[in-house]
Amino acid sequence: MIPRTIAASLLATAIVVAAYLALAWQPAVDPITPPDRASFDPALVRQGEKLAALGNCNVCHTAPGGKIFAGGRALTTPFGTIYSTNITPDPEIGMGAWSEAAFRRSMREGVDRAGRHLYPAFPYDHFTLVTAEDDEALYAFLMTREPVRTAIPANQLPFPYNMRILLAGWKLLFLQRGPYHPDQAQSEEWNRGAYLVEGLAHCGACHTPRNGLGAEKTRERFAGGESEGWTAYALNAQSPAPVPWDADQLYDYLRNGWQAVHGVPRGPMAAVIDDLGSADDADLRAIATYLASMIGEPAPQRRRQGDAALAQARRGTEGASTTGSIDLMRQRAATEPDNENGLGAKVYRSACAECHERGRPLPFGGLRLALSTAIEGPNPRNIINVVLAGLPAAPGGEPSPMMPGFSGALSDEQLTALLAYLRARFSDKPQWTDIAKEVRDAGTGARPVIAYPSHGIGAAPADVRERMSPW
Amino acid sequence: MVKLTINGQQHEVTADPDTPLLYVLRDELALNGAKFGCGLGQCGACTVMVDGKAVFSCVTPILLLEGRQVTTVEGLGTHDNPGPMQRAFIAEQAAQCGYCIAGMMMRAQALLQDNPAVSDADIRAALQPNLCRCGTHMRILRAVRRAARLMQTADAGSASKNQ
Amino acid sequence: MRKDYIIVSRRRVLAGTGALVVSFCSVPLLRAQEAQQSRDDAQQLPGSLKTAPFLDSWIRINADGRITVFTGKAELGQGLKTALLQIAADELDVPFAWTTLVTADTARTPNEGFTSGSHSMQDSGTAIRHAAAQVRELLKAQAVERLAVPPQSLRTENASVVAEDGRHLSYGELVSEELLHVRAVATSELKDRAALKLIGTAVERVDIPAKVTGGAAYVQDLRFPGMLHGRVVRPPSYGAQLRSVDTGAVERMPGVIKAIRDGNFLAVVSEREYQCVTAMRALAAAAHWEEKAQLPRQQELTSFLLRLPSQDIAILDQRGPAQAAHKTLAATYSRPYQAHGSIGPSCAVARFEDNALTVWTHTQGVYPDRAAIAQLLGTPPEEVRCIHVEGSGCYGHNGADDAAADAALIAREIPGRAIRVQWMREQEHAWEPYGPAMLTKVIASLDGSGKVLDWDYALWSNSHTERPGGAGALIAGQTIAQPFPKPAPRPIPQPEGGGDRNAIPIYKFASARVMHHFLSDMPVRVSALRSLGAYMNVFSIESFMDEHAQAAGSDPVEFRLKHLEDERARAVVTTAAERFGWSQRLATGHGRGFAFARYKNLAAYCAVAIESEVTPETGRARAVRAVAAVDAGQVINPDGLVNQIEGGIIQSISWTLYEQVTFDERRITTIDWSTYPILRFNAVPDSVEVHVLDRPGQPFLGAGEATQGPAAAALANAIANASGARLRDLPLTRERIKAAIAA
C-alpha cells in the first residue's frame, strides 16, 4: 500500500509534468509544396539578403567547404555538439516545406515546423525581436536559394540535453518573446541600432556572459563572452580597448573591416565583418550608435589612458625606423632590466617588433601593441590564437592583412614568456594568471585554436602620407 | 654563439641571435634549400621544419631554436640518395622554375610525418601558406600524394625487416 | 674577351690547308660549304644559325666524346635545358647523359637576344637541331677519310661512327679544333620520325634533382669567397628626388662596409646578409625624398587611357562585300596593370676586377643587358660579361635586368669583391615593370545565318616592351646623378605585336578592322608580361565571340568552328570540347566556358574549356576543372609541354580572378602578397587535363604563352554561363561578380 503522502506527491508531480508537457507541446505546421522562386518579389528578396547578412545566417548554416545554407556545421557547446540545420528550400532536408508562418514561429519562438523545440544555439532569444515584415523578407530570401540535399550529422548531446521538450522550460525562464519595442526616449537611429544589435545581429550571443544553463545573463549585457575559443570583448563600460571606441570608429570598423587605432577582426568576428560588408551604411551607423551608447562616454581617466596609449604607439614608430625602435628598446632595457632582458623581451624584439613597430600603417601593417585590445583583455587567449595561427590569407584572393603563425617556431616556454612580457609592457593591468596553463591547453588541443581568414578589407588608407616609409 | 642542430648536425653559428634562421641557413651554413621569397611569412619559400612542424624560417629568429631539431630539404635526402619526398617530386616532375618547391616539400613533409594517411583536402589545406607562381599546383599535389604512398610502403617495408 | 674552349685539342688534322680542303672535298656537304661564305647566305640558315652560323658556336665535342651544347637562350623553368639537350643528343646520336648545356653567356654563347616570345624552340631549338645534324655528318665525313669506306656504309650511334665491318671511331677520336669551326649550310639531314629516340619523349628534366635536394640551382645560390652583400634603397615613388641622407650613421652599423650614393641611387654593402637588410632599413629611414609622381586615379583608369595621346596604327583593314547586319553587338573590356610577381625577388652578383666586370644575372637577355650595363658604366661592352644563372620564374621582364645593373654599379665601387644584390619583396612588387593596363572596344554584327559579318576591334595600350632600352631603361640608369634619358617606346610590329599581339582574330570574317592605339605616355612602369597583349586581346575576342554565339543562338564551340578554316585550329578546338565533355549537363550553379587562340596567329594552337562554380550570394567563383588541347608542332618533350600548359592555365586563372596592381596618386600600393594576392591551393581546380596533338615533322611552335588568353576567356565565359552575369572588366573579383549578378 503506498502511503497517502507519497501518492499525493506522485499525483502532484504527474499533474505538473502533464501541465508542463501540455504547455511545452507545440503543434506541427502543415508542410507546403516549395513555392516557386518567381513568386517572390525581387525587392523583398534583396531586402531579405541584407537582413540575412546582418544575421550572419550563412556562417552557422554553412559547413566548411559545404554549400551555402546547407547546414552541417558543428557548433561546440558546453552541452555537446550541435549541427546547424539546412535552411535551403530543399523539401526533404531543408526548409522547402516550411510555410512563412512556420518560419516566423521558428524565429519568434524557437520551434521548428514539426513542432520540436530548437536549441538556443540558434539564437532565437535574439531573433524573437525581428518584426514580421523582416521575417517575411528573410523567408523570401531563403526560399529563393539553391536547394541542396545533403544529410546533416545527428547532434551529439548526452542525456538529458537530447530531450528537446526540456527546452520549453528553458524558454520559460529565459525567452522574452518579441518583436522589438522601440524606446521612445531614444533617437530613431539608436532604436534601429538596438533593433539590429539585439535582434538579427545577435551580438550578445558572443559578447554577453552565459549562465550554467547556457542562457545569456541579461543583467550583465555586453560584459564580454566567448566564441569558439576566442574572447569576445566587453562592449559596455568594461570594454578593454586601450583607446575608447566611439561611434565613428565602430562604424569604420564594421564598414571596412579594420580600424586605425584598434586593429583588424580575427576569430569569428572576421566572418561577421565579412557579412556586414553588404549592409547599408545607415544600418551600420545605427549599430555603431547603439553600441557606442552601450560602451558609454569614457570617464576622463579612461580618456587619458587612451591618449597615453596612442602616444606610446606613436613613440614606438617615431621616424618609423627600426634603428629608432632598437635605440628605444635599448633604453628600456637599461631602465627595466627584468622585463626588457628576459626571454619574453628577446622573443618580442626578434620575432615581433619587425612588423609591429616598423611603421607600416594598418590595415596591412602590424598593430602597434600599445593599442591592442587583446593585451588588455581578461585572458591571453586571443593573443595566443593570433600568435600561434597568425592571420591567414583571405581565401578568395582579396587583399587582406596577413600575419605568419608561430606555432611551430615558439616553444611553450617562449610563448609564455612572450605573453607575460607583452602584458607587462603594454598594459597597466595586473599580470594574467595561469598563462602557462592557457599556453598548454592551446598546445595540447584542450582548447582548440581555430583561425578565421577574413575575406579582405574595404577601403585602404587613401592618404598618401600614411604610406610606409620608403625601403 | 648560438648552437643550432640542422639536419641532425650541430653547428655553432656566429650570427646575431636576432637573425632569422633563413639567413643563417643560406649565408652562414651555405644551405640552398630554404629560399628568400618575401621575408614576411607570406609565401613559404623559406619553409623548414622545427621539431617536425613547418615554420617560416624568414621570421624565426635563431634565438628560439637552441636545443631544437631543424630540418631542411637537405635533410630529406641527397642527389645520389633522395628520400621519398624528393623521389616523389622527381617522379612527378613537380616543378617549373622550382623556386617554391623546397618550401612545399618541407610543409608536406611536416604534414605527412604527422599523419601519412591524409586526404586531398587535407593536403590542399596544409599547403595553403605556400605560394607557387608558375602554377605547378596540380603536380605538387600529385607528388605529395605519391610521397605519402612511398612513405607508407617504406614503413611497411621497414616493419617487415624488423620481424 | 676571353673565349672559353671546351674541346681539348688533341691533334690537328693534316698540316696544310690544301690537304684539308682536298680531304674535305670528297664530301658534298663541304663543297656546298665553299659556295656559301657570304653574309647574305646566312639568312637562309634555319633558326638562330642566321646570326651565329658557325657550328662550333653551338656544339663542341671533348676528347672523351662528351658534348657541350651552347644556346643563347636561358632556362626560365620552362624545361629549356632538357629540351635542347634532347634535340642535340638525338641528332648527334650521343647518350643523353653525355650532354651538357651552356646557356646565355656573353663570353661563350651565341647572341639570341631575349628568351621571350616563345621563340626558344623555334629559334634555338631549330638552330641546335640543324647544327647537331650537320656536326654528325662532318664526323661521318672524317670517318670516311680515316676508314676509307663509302659514306653510305657508316652509321652513328653512342657517340661513335660505326662501319659495316664493325670498325668504329668515337667522336672524341674524330674531332679536332677546326673540324667544327665551319659555317652551317641551309639544309641538313635531319632524322626522320622513326629514327628519333629522345625528341618526342618525356625525358626527365636535368635541373629538377638539384632543385629538390638543395643543390645550387639559382643565381640566389651563388657564393664566392669574400662575397659581400648589397641592398639598394629605392625611391618611394617614380621620379622621387633624394634631398638628403645621412649615410654616416649607417656606415657605423655592424658589418657595414660602405653606403653608396650616386644622385638618387642609394645602396649599402655589408659583410653579412641580414646586417645588410638592417642597414638598408636604417638607410631608408635616414633618406628624405621629394616626391613628384602623378599617377592616374585608380577608379578612372580606362578614361585615363582614352585621354592619352595615341599613335593610331591600323593593323588590319579587310573589307568584304556590304551586307545587311542582322544583329549588332558592342562591348568594352578592360584590364588593369598586372604584375609578374616572381616568387623570388630579383638578384644578381657582380664582380669588377682588372677592368673587367662579370655579372651573374637571371636576365632574359644577357647581350642586351650587357649593352645597357656597359652604357651605364661608360665602358666598352667587351669589358662586361653577363652570364645567365637561373632565377625564379620571371614570366617576362621583371626586376632581373635592374638588379644586374644595381650589382654592377655597386661592384664598380668595391673592386675585387663579388657583390650580391638581392631585392626585397616590396621592391620587386613596386618596381618591376608591369603588364600594361589595356582597354578594348569591339563592335561586330551577325548576318541572317548566324555568322559574323563585320568585326571592328580597337585597343588602347602602352608599350609591352621596354627592352632593349639601354641604360635609360634601367632604374639605375634613371636614378644616378647623371641619368640616361628614357628611350622612347616603340610598338612591336606585327605579326609579333605588343599590345596588339593576337588582336587580329584568327577567325574568317567577311570584314574586319583592327586599330591599335599605341600610347607612349607611361605613368606606371610597364614592359613585357607573359603573352603581352595576347592575354587581353584573346580575353576580349573570345568573350565577345561567346556573346555573339549567344545572340546567334549557337553553341559556343560550334560558333567558333563555323569561322575557323585552319585544320589544326579546328582539331585543337574539337579535341578540347570532346575531352571536356562539352555536351554533358553540369550541376546547378556550375557553368562551362570555352576559348581558343593561336598564339600570335603563328605559334602554338591552344583551346581551353573550363567548368566553373559560382555562388551568387557571395559572388565567389571557382574554376572547378580545366581541359586543354594544344598543338605545338613537333613536340620535343611532351611532359615539359604539358607542364607549361597546366601552369599557364593556373597562372591565368589567378590573373583573371584576383590580380590588379593598385596605386594612389603617388605610390604603388601593391607591395607584397597581402596587398597583391595570387591563387593559393584552396582555389586551384580539382583537375587540369592537357591533351597534346603532336605533329612530328612540323616546325617547333612556341607554347609557353599559349594559354594565358584562352584560359581567361574560358573562365569568364564559364562564369557567365553559370550565373548569367557577363563580366568584361578584369580581374573578375568577387565584388564584381556579385554586383553583376544582382544587377
Describe the protein in words.
The complex is a heterotrimer of chains A (471), B (163) and C (743). Chain A has 471 residues and is mainly α. Among the domains of chain A are: 150 residues, no CATH class; 108 residues, Orthogonal Bundle (Cytochrome Bc1 Complex, Chain D, domain 2), CATH 1.10.760. Helix content of chain A is 44%, strand content 3%. In chain A, strands 1-2 form a two-stranded antiparallel sheet. In chain A, strands 3-4 form a two-stranded antiparallel ribbon. In chain A, a hairpin with a 2-residue loop joins strand 3 and strand 4. In chain A, helix 2 packs across helix 6, helix 8 crosses helix 12 and helix 19 packs across helix 20. Chain A is globular, with a radius of gyration of 25 Å. By secondary structure, chain B is of the alpha+beta class. Chain B is built from five helices and five strands, in the order E-E-H-E-E-E-H-H-H-H. Chain C is built from 20 helices and 24 strands. In chain C, helix 11 packs parallel to helix 12, helix 15 runs parallel beside helix 19 and helix 18 packs across helix 19. In chain C, the strands form six sheets. A seven-stranded mixed sheet of chain C has the order 9-10-7-17-14-15-16, with helices on both faces. Chain C folds into three domains: 194 residues, 2-Layer Sandwich (Aldehyde Oxidoreductase, domain 4), CATH 3.30.365; 165 residues, Aldehyde oxidase/xanthine dehydrogenase, molybdopterin binding domain (Aldehyde Oxidoreductase, domain 4, 2-Layer Sandwich); 271 residues, Aldehyde Oxidoreductase, domain 4 (2-Layer Sandwich), CATH 3.30.365. The chains are: A mainly alpha (471), B alpha+beta (163), C alpha+beta (743). Chains in contact: A-B, A-C, B-C. The interface between B and C is large, with 57 and 62 residues.
